[in-house]
Amino acid sequence: MRHKKGYINQETGLVLWGYQKEKALWMTVETYHRQDIKVKSKAKAKYWENIEESRARIRAARNKHKEKRNMDFKAWASKNKHKIRCNRMLRKYGITNEDYHAMLEQQKNVCAICNNPQYGGKDRFLCVDHCHSTGKVRQLLCIKCNTGLGQFLDNPELLKEAAKYLEKHKLNTNL
Q1: SS3 for 31-94, per residue?
Q2: pTM of the full predicted structure?
Q3: Residue 4: which region, alpha, beta or left (left: phi > 0; alpha: psi -120 to 50)?
Q4: What CA–CA distance (Å, rounded) separates 86 from 103?
Q5: pLDDT tens digit string along 62-84?
Q6: Boundaries of every domain in the chain
Q7: For residues 122 and 124, what is the distance between their CA atoms, to the nearest angstrom?
Q8: All residues at 6 or more sequence positions from 12 whose CB lies less than 8 Å from its CB, including other chains
Q9: Domain 96-168 part of CATH 3.40.1800.10
């Protein structure tokens, strides 16, 4: 079996440095780390030696394979929507998928404001509502309630005024 560089053989404790004419080159972990640092420092020195040429070479290589990379990512993303969503929630709100599902179970799978499930069926998730100034997660809301709060800039006074307005015009239409 052909292993990648950096593979550690559990039996011998040696690290695979590379291959030479199909022969595996092994070394101790300490030697591997020293060699790795040396190689990386040489590569950095070469990069900074002529920065514009290095950047142009990198841009050209990226552009050459841009379409294939995009197609590969799209294929991966379509298979791993769950991972992307979990990573986004963790980065943006600081909650894990388990935290989300615990909140969802606590709210009985409905919006915290209107008590309706998410529009669009089981494929859609409730939105994670959070305070924009502190970043603290509040509760889960359906898309309509979440965007409604956002339109009122999370201002309770504006929401009270909007409620008064609706009540006033509700009474006038019943005359």
Answers
A1: HHHHHHHHHHHHHHHHHHHCHHHHHHHHHHHHHHCHHHHHHHHHHHHHHCHHHHHHHHHHHHHC
A2: 0.57
A3: beta
A4: 15
A5: 999 999 989 999 999 999 998 99
A6: 15-64, 96-168
A7: 5
A8: 26
A9: yes
